[in-house]
Write the structure tokens for this entry.
Amino acid sequence: MKNLLITDHDKRICYLGPTVSGSIHDYTLLKQELPANESWFETTQVWVDLGFQGIKKDYAYSDHIHLPHKQPAKSEKNPKPTLTEQQKKDNRKIAKIRVRVEHAIGGMKWFHCLMHRVRNHLDVLVDNQISLCAGIYNMKMYLKTLS
């Protein structure tokens, strides 16, 4: 099971896409839910992981999209591939921001019902289950800001 998840800097879940089953690539899922022919990232900075290779080429406002550098492939000419110091610095900067997304995902998994296999025959129950967990997680984060 997989969902597309968008969070903000405060680790609140802003968008939770529908649950899809089976093996589907992250970038394919993004293109299905947010078609590339619209200007989604005009006013937003987007920080993605390497599962979204090709996003800068396909979507407008590519200067607002931050994608980590991929390590070069090992070859005869380059037996020990490494990133440059600047690329490593850029990747660390992106990772410091992206870790908030991972914390939001982990916060939703605090509800153990998402960690176990769902054995039901109604697909809508899976969507409802993850939506409820995301909503309760957001409420928990909101209450944390009040105290």
